[in-house]
Amino acid sequence: MHHGSDRTPAQKASAVHVRIFDGQRFVERSQLVVNERPVTLYLNQREMVTLLCAGKHLDELAVGFFHGEGFLQSRTDLQEVTVDDSQGKVQVITSREASLAENLWQKRTITSGCGKGSLFYYAVDALLSKPVESSVALSAQQLRQHLEALNRMSETYRQTHGVHNSALATPDEILLFRDDIGRHNAVDMIVGHAFLHGTSLQDKLLITTGRLTSEILIKAAKVGIPVLISRNTATSLAVQLANSLNITLVGFARAGKFTLYSGTQRIISEA
Questions:
Q1: Is the CATH code 3.30.360.10 the one for domain 138-268?
Q2: Which of 12, 52, 61, 173 is deepest in the core (most CB within 10 A)?
């Protein structure tokens, strides 16, 4: 059905020679930096977008990206995913004819790289972003435990400080961890993995180390994720959208404390 490159894992980091100024003098040493490479996604033989990423889990990245953009609605839409690791290309074949999403795609601007993603303010997003209905709830203690677990998992971050980490979780446990140079890529991989494995997102939490922006919030809303948690801050537009889309938004989650911006009904205080 689909095949990918993940059986032979690519290196996430490379050693480079650097000179570090320690305040008084230069010290020569080897240091790990996170890998970055362009990967081009094709839909039905047509080049759609080039993403800058760390080069891992490219099948999940492509499927998650296209699912979030509305090109893949259900599992039966997906016929094939082919990853050409050496060329940095992923081909996704779908069973649908040119959809509304594909027609609207012509009108969109795509930007790539860390901190940027597709621009989401077209009609397709209004259609796909409907208020999230989910009764999932978690305690403040569970939230703290998840953040601690995410920190333990982020080995590449400790080596390079060059990636964003994301995890998919239930209130009880972390199910899946992904990291990448772009926080959007890591989220797309999680969405793609869930899509490929038939995992429902309606009762899950998405935990990320990236800023909570309108883009990441719309990405979550389009696939029905009810809870977004980050150790970072939220933007004003993200909070506004979270309130209108009924998404629970938690920021500054670190050292046992957190800020609850919206969707307070899903977080239970122990007191």
A1: no
A2: 61
Same fold, 37-128 and 138-268: no
Q: Is 114 a catalytic residue?
A: yes
Domain boundaries, the chain: 10-34, 37-128, 138-268
Global pTM value: 0.83
3-state secondary structure labels for all residues of the chain? CEECCCCCCCCCEEEEEEEEECCCCEEEEEEEEECCEEEEEEECCEEEEEEEECCCCHHHHHHHHHHHCCCCCCHHHEEEEEEECCCCEEEEEECCCCCHHHHHHCCCCCCCCCCCCCCCCCHHHHHHCCCCCCCCCEEHHHHHHHHHHHHHHCHHHHHHCCCEEEEEECCCCEEEEEEECCHHHHHHHHHHHHHHHCCCCCCCEEEECCCECHHHHHHHHHCCCCEEEECCCECHHHHHHHHHHCCEEEEEEECCEEEEEECHHHEECCC
Q: Which of 41, 54, 114, 132 is catalytic?
A: 114
Domain 37-128 coded CATH 3.10.20.10: yes
